[in-house]
Input
Amino acid sequence: MTATILVICYCILLFHSALCGPETFLLISGALLVHLSDSKAVDSISANEAIKDDGNTIVSGNGMFKLGFFSPGKSKYRYLGIWYNKISVCTPIWVANREMPIADKTGMLILSHEGNLIILADGGNTKIWSSNSTSSLAINNPVARIMDIGNLVLLDYSSTNNQNPIWQSFDYMGDTFIAGMKIGKDLVTGLEWSLTSWKSPDDPAQGQYVCWVDTNGYPQTFGRKGKDLRWRIGPWNGLGNSGRPIETPNPFYTMEFVLNQEEIYFKFELKTPAIQRIYQLTWDGKLLHLQWIERLQQWVVYTDVGVDNFNRYEVCGPYGSNNINRRVLCSCLRGFEPRFPNEWEASDWSGGCQRKKALDCASGDGFWKISGVKLPDTRHSWYNVSMTLGECEMACRRKCNCTAYANLDIRGSGCLLWFDELMDIREHDVKHNLYIRLAASEFAGNNVSQFSYKRKKKVLTVVLLSIASAVLLMLLAIAYAYKKKRPYMQRRGIWNAHDKKNSSVQMEDTDDDLPFLSLYEIAKATDNFSINNKIGEGGFGLVYKGVLEGGREVAVKRLSESSKQGHDEFKNEIMCIAKLQHRNLVKILGYCIHENEMILIYEYMVNKSLDSILFDETRSSMLDWPRRFQIIHGMARAILYLHQDSRLQIIHRDLKAGNILLDADMNPKISDFGLARKFFGSDTTLTKTKKIVGTYGYISPEYAVHGKFSTKSDVFSFGVLVLEIVSGKKNTGFSHQDHSDNLLGHAWRLYKENRSIELTSASVRDSCIVSEVLRSIHVGLLCVQHHAEDRPTMMSVILMLISEGVLPEPKQPAFFTGERHDEILSVSSADEYMITQLFAR
Output
């Protein structure tokens, strides 16, 4: 519209040129032509137009992306690329001349009349790069435009089909995968969309690493270095990739998998332009999921998709299963044994496993169900999207070379069959069932409900089940009567090492065998529980540092005879934490039960617990503000995992500084799940209990007064922790000369007076980022609201911590006013007292 008006004005000037005089006419018309030039779209170039390396660029219509020449990192060479225009750190998402850098600033990009993008150097004498665009139709009006999603496209504006690109940069990806891109394959043209790493941080030439979707069998994503397969992201299971945590719907992005006769690809879309996320294949082979944090002015790692050293492809060989929570990394699947036992003893598992008993398809094989695994390599598989699980089993039975089957979709539909050795299996939290073919003789003496026989044996199965049920009921009745006579064993626990024959115990409600260690092994590791190895103490008993035979340092938690934490809490901790895998949760490595001894073995944390540093005047200087903010973030991610992303929903119920352990890099790890409660499905309502447990100062008011707890109870405890981390003061031990409030009350007073920064610990004032501190205090106050419904979810907490948006106003938190009373008891996780009134209503 503006250009049209200017043209009309120019014509009027021509008509009145005689009246204006030649000089006036030239001045005005020159100004109009400048405006006409400026009004031209800056997101595209037309035929024979050029972008020179003199600061000349084009920018997408929404201002998000820019195309021009740049030098990456410390390099002096020049490249044509696309990068984020609204992000201060230069982040290229596409580079044209990756293999042909320009040594000076003589480069230019031109668009030919034939519809080719060409990079020239040396005054147009040297051709550096070309898009090699091809079209079956003549191109009359080519235009190169950078789209709002960052895609550089070539269009023919004279064509009636001018929305379909002749060529696009998204078809030629580099090391970065952004929203709108596809990674996969065009089955019609044969074009593959894959990520290739840079040669170094300063050199975008193709590096050694590639991430691509292998479309042989059922599609899956691989990473390789040269020709060596390094890792595999499991196939799509309907909700996410097998072997990766299932991400419940979130406000950030959606992931999509498309499989049809024309295309196979993965793609993600951002739900809001306020959040920018990318996947980047780094020069050293990591596949990082990054999010831009405006406040920090940097990309922050959300997850490392390229998995850890324990998830190397094929590390456990054929029919081997990988579990990083075991002392021994690899084990054989049921019905299999190490192919080379001596090599396994030397921790070389690459030879994998072999069958104990050969299959006999004619006489009838069975299928053993295992749950919680990343599905095996699917390159030699067959799939059908519409078959039921029963039809899938029959299809596998009919093929004697079928080694396993599973649902294609984790929600219970589709069929996936394997016809080769099962490779690259990893035990995982996601409950995707895999049915492995075994010889029928492998099932002798086992519960027949866990495998399938042929239809002709169904009658026998029903009879056997009936007999087994009757025997089981009789045994349960005898066991109940026996327990009634032995209350001491009921209190201390019936898991006796002798009863279990000093072997791993299959816990109820868990699919994993947790390693059992003998009392002799533990005594030897701790120098017979030497006082010199003591590293902690609580209501449950003592904690010792130990060193296992392999040299691994561990923490040994030994329940004392006087501890009120007994069989239930001990069992609860094992069953909860054994199922959990998160970088900010402490790992349990094993357990021991011997007569009255109950012992848990954890990974050893060099820096012990948060409270041992945070509340110590001397050691607190070890925690500068960046480390404290990192601890807050790590705790938030771990609690979100417990509440939402783990296989079972877990409410911890005893979050406190003493239960936050710190590793060598000061990364937080939540521990002590003895009081945790687990649920199937989402927790939408408050759960009530008559037994109030936890630690005074961290317990939410609805739990302390009414015995009601939910995920919001943990949110309250997290809020207390945030305020303690910022201030370096304990909530319960806090005192102030001007009032008698606890830490929550003091933080609220300062907030109302716009003096929140005064809450900050003196030891971090020189290193703190004021905006982060104020936002953390604000979020902490929102978490400690008196009513559970006023507190945010942990997903919202994480969003508020990393975003720049306006936060809701907190109300007055739950805290004491007036004098504190000495008769209020401190309740530890071991001492389960009823608390009738702790907080003001």
Summary: The chain has a mean pLDDT of 81.
